[in-house]
Model the fold of this input.
Amino acid sequence: MSIRMCLRRGSAADLIGLGAGVVLAAPVLVGIGYAAAASLGVVGPGATAAGVERIARVLAERTTWRGLGLTLWVAVLATALAMAGAVLVAVLFRGAGWFDRVARGLAVLPLPVPHLVAGALGVWILGQSGEIARVLAAVGAVRMPAEVPALVYDRWGIGLALTMAWKESAFLAVVATALLATRSVDVEDAARTLGAGPLQTFVRITWPILWRGLLPAVIAVFVFVAGSYEAAALLAPSDPLVLPLLVADRASDPDLGRRGDAYVATLLLLGIAVLAVVAHEWTRARWEPLDP
Amino acid sequence: MRSEPPGAARRAPARRGVRATPALVLTAALAALVACGGRDSRKRAASGDQGQETVAALATLPWDSVVARARGTEVIWRMWRGDPSINAYVDGWVAPRLRDRYGITLRAVEGQGPEIVNQLVVEREAGRHTGTASLLWINGETFSNLRREQLLAGPWAGRLPNAAYVDSTSPIVSRDFEQDPAGYESPWGRVQFALIYDSTRTPAPPRSLAELAAWIRAHPGRFTHDQGFTGTTFLKMVLYAKAGGVRGLQGGFDSTRYAAARSGVFAWLDSLRPFFWRGGTTYPPDVSAMHRLFANREIDFSMSNNQNEVVTKVRQGILPPTARALLLTDGTIANTHYLGIATNAPNAAGAMVVADFLLSPEAQLEKLKPDVWADGTVLDATRLPDEWRARFAALDADPRQLPRDSLAKYARPEISPRYHERLAADWRSHVRGRQP
Amino acid sequence: MTGSHLAAAVPRPGPGRIVRGVLLLALVASSLAPLVLLAIWSMSGRWLYPALLPTEYSAASWRALGAESLGPALVTSGALAAAAGLVGCVLALPLGRALARLRGWRRHVGAAAAFLPVAAPPLALGTGLQVVLLSVGLGGTVAGVLLAHLVPAVGYLSLFFLGTFTLFDERVEAEARTLGATPWQVWRHVLLPMLRGPIVEAVALGFLISWGQFALTLVVGGGAVRALPLEVFALVRAGQDRAAAVGALLLVVPPAIGLAALRWAAQRTAVAPA
Done:
């Protein structure tokens, strides 16, 4: 095989490969372009004249930044809780016996539950008059709904974070279980034969492999939670407004001229997504052992 | 299964592949295309849109030609689909009769005011002269926005045969938030705002705003209002009171009168906020969430734009059977909801026939029944033929319904939609920690 | 390979066993109880605080399944998801293969490009797609919504096939070529049989991605395309909890059964880890 044939074949593969990438990313890039154009006032409802004044106005509002803050906080909390739950299940239920298989199956059960069903369940179960509150009232722990901690429509988004953590922990449990079953087993065996105790094995071998392997999935969960509209619409507070709700709120503003503000918030959301994609790929590149 | 392509490690560096710029150029081109299209279409008036052209063409023809043109067609109706009682009426009673008598297939799809406006704006920007929906369920600021953007076809409402029965002398029906429909929308039903309370939990409910304020102070954490249309209507009632009655705000939007009344409203709210549910730090997103809070004993009052919602919601099992409607002596807002035709409606003739059927005494009577929807009629009983007048009068009232004379006594008309817009926006800023 | 011997490393008697038992109970409560509650909600006639169980039962929403909006929405969602799974798989297979051929920084750019449509918040993605689809006349149509669903589906499936082809042994294909097979024959007789498992899984994953879409369908469909998630969300927002619970069960149970079937099939062929 001559060098020239190698070169040509390599570059053709590169062209096709990158072309595939362009095809896949194009819809999002168009979305970013349109949102940018609408933010500049060129298109969209309430578009008047082109200019940065709309962007400047929205970015100057406290509502925007508090919304961004709550969005990020809820995403971080939900991701951390989901990861903790998934790691716990994956590590404690590694065996092949029925006990472990049932536990793993249960942990994965929320996987097909869409965000909006999880949100509805959150309202029905976690609300101050929800099922948990009713059980508490039945055993006499509380007398009225107001005595139950407020987890729905609360300013810290705890109920929303718990609900999303419940749903996404199933996804992370699948990834964590697969990781433990494939990547760390051999190394752990070696450690065991060298005489390491279970705690030592976990701290020095299992956990480092686990968190590195989970990180791309954790970043994915983060961006799924941050971008979810349905669950936030059912559980999130009215103030601060998480970004997806801010988009919807502005888009239905009685003042037609303000509706374009939604696109600035959309740009913020897409910006978070782009950053997450870069982080996701970087962690995969760094710690994914199977990539050539 | 791991593969190593032969010579991978030793492959000579390939020629620099596709650069990223084509992707950027593509995006920029698409955005520019959309932007250019958007600019031109905004300057374009409603001409060229199918709905408007149909309405104009049919304006001079007799009604029979409209009906003939609509026969065998499909009408897509964008309306709020959140209440099964309304859906049952539309899908189960109206649609079969339209099919049997006029050969029209009615398809109702979900869409509320702001979504409808945005959708039509985006459709226009994309150059769609023929859209998806023909008939729209609208009122108030939606009508105002649509008219301003020239997204409604018309005038057509006056030429419907059943329009002769409409109670056109009533200020509630003949003006939509003080705007003259001018034939661009046809009235459909009328409702009046009412509070909802539980007769077992609150045996002696407050009867006026002042009594309500005292009640709120005496029962901290048991009252709130929602962030949506109903909540803003409640705030508007307070606005009327602070302006010394609705007359203080009629006659178009006046920013000085508004500012004065608004400061009164916010002073009233601020004094009561610590006694609101959750200390006034958060508010339910919409009226259904409020119903849920009320039914589950988290709060003791709910509210509704429709005074008869109590009837339907108790029947659906959402509200407890002891729920009742309450009017305040300061007056509650009554308004009418309408039907409009989109300027790019694919089937304006069909939409007109549907609107006419919905305006017929038969359809209005069915809609009024407590076990169907209990939505008020826009027809004037005195203009109806005798047998219809008798049937309307003979309609059994549900014991939970408010007596008609109380409703009439405390009804207050709507004011300019600008008040609604400003109040909603200002309340949001006020509550979210920013000064308006 | 499942680490069962490592399970023995967890101390059997004493605290370890108790912790595992407690955790299993917690899992039963947190995973099963919500779904049981959904089932009870779907049959409740009146269920208000402080009742632990409904005070009145009603099968009205189940009986009205065909007559009201949930039945047709189920059919719409099913058709959309099936199409998205099949078409997505067909599109993603060559795309994933192309991405797998990249090396170095290009590979990472390609993988990131594939993940971008998956990570983009559907609400944000939908607003951009809506304009494009409207201008080609597909706004508010099922075809337009299908195209919109394909965006995240093809992205995710391309990543999936990227992983598959990374593990792929290209030498079998190369051998078939040197034996004189045409590219078409190589595909039909060598590649496709080898890829049968991943293809089935990809179709199922594409189905799931489309099945659960909400914001995309809402924005691109303009309210006219009534997929099941839209109906359920509207019902929850309108306070119609019983009907919403019926819809929620319809949303959750079929994919759950499908996923369980996939996992069981995978376990039987013992390729994927449990």
